[in-house]
Amino acid sequence: MAAITVENVSKRYGTVRALDRVDLTVDEGEIFGFLGPNGAGKSTLINVFLDYAHPDSGAVTIFGHDCQENGVDAKARMGVLPDGYTVYDRLTGRQHIEYAIEAKDADVHPMDVLERVGIHDAADQTAGGYSKGMSQRLVLGMALVGEPDLLVLDEPTSGLDPHGIKQIRTIIREENERGATVFFSSHILEQVEAVCDRVGILYGGELVATDTISGLRQSIGGGTKLQITVDRCDAGVLERIESLEGVEHAWLEEADNRVEVTCSNDAKMDVLVALNDAGVDVENFQTEEASLEEMFVEYTDGNR
Ligand SMILES: Nc1ncnc2c1ncn2[C@@H]1O[C@H](COP(=O)(O)OP(=O)(O)OP(=O)(O)O)[C@@H](O)[C@H]1O
């Protein structure tokens, strides 16, 4: 069963189109990265999951339950770290977790949860004195209580230091290993790349791409760049390479005697074979993959 289905969802705020006919399915057990620049509409979609925002058209289901028609069941198996989370200034960290345990009727020790999110030392301090990162860890801890089947994390690393970011990654992987589906939004590409099975790129309210990271690399063309130092090369050889399936462009950096080729991952070997067949000696060979950052720019910079 799909963990999340989003069907043709649109949402406007006045003249702003926050979501524009978004279609998306996230399968059970996936770690799905929801990427987009500031203002793309990421939080709006998460707000629709939570029924904090009502779509103008379309529907969203969580494990088959309609988020607007049956929000209680839709949210029952969900743990959420929302964008505009709040903590209760006068309650301690431990009391927050105890509250979540009671609300979800869960069987876990509050200190184990606080330790997992790295704020056990501050368990008995009131949350009013917590830093932004500590508050965020606390709300994440509350989301983890009760082993939710779906974890929805809106920019979970935004207030965290590098150590905290690493901890979040570990938690995401652990949660996924115990069977949870994870949906997390971010504009920080490398974090998404580090843990996600699939990503969706949202831009101006539109879902402009959904794929695995390697699939996205391939679909923008030049997914892989080869740099091949050769003993010699001429226009005929370059033409031959460019005629290969999966090759986008081949050119010679004359000063370094280096052939550069943008191609799909599958075409790499064919390029080397073609050089060999043309009697060209390969002296050195390097592969450079398009970074997610480059892909992101490609998809969100007006090229689509
Ligand atoms: N309650 C609201 N009232 C009016 N406009 C809103 C509201 N919520 C969101 N918007 C607008 O909708 C658009 C999408 O906002 P949203 O917060 O969903 O983007 P986001 O991708 O989560 O951005 P960020 O990464 O900055 O959090 C923005 O133009 C925003 O100003």
From TrEMBL:
Family: Belongs to the ABC transporter superfamily.
Record Pfam families: ABC_tran, DrrA1-3_C
Annotated PANTHER family: ABC TRANSPORTER, ATP-BINDING PROTEIN (PTHR43335)
The protein's name: ABC transporter ATP-binding protein
Membrane-crossing residue ranges in chain numbering: none
UniProt keyword annotations, A-Z: ATP-binding, Nucleotide-binding, Transport
Top-level taxon of the source organism: Archaea
Signal peptide: none
SUPFAM superfamilies: P-loop containing nucleoside triphosphate hydrolases (SSF52540)
GO molecular function: ATP binding; ATP hydrolysis activity
Domain ABC transporter: residue ranges: 4-229
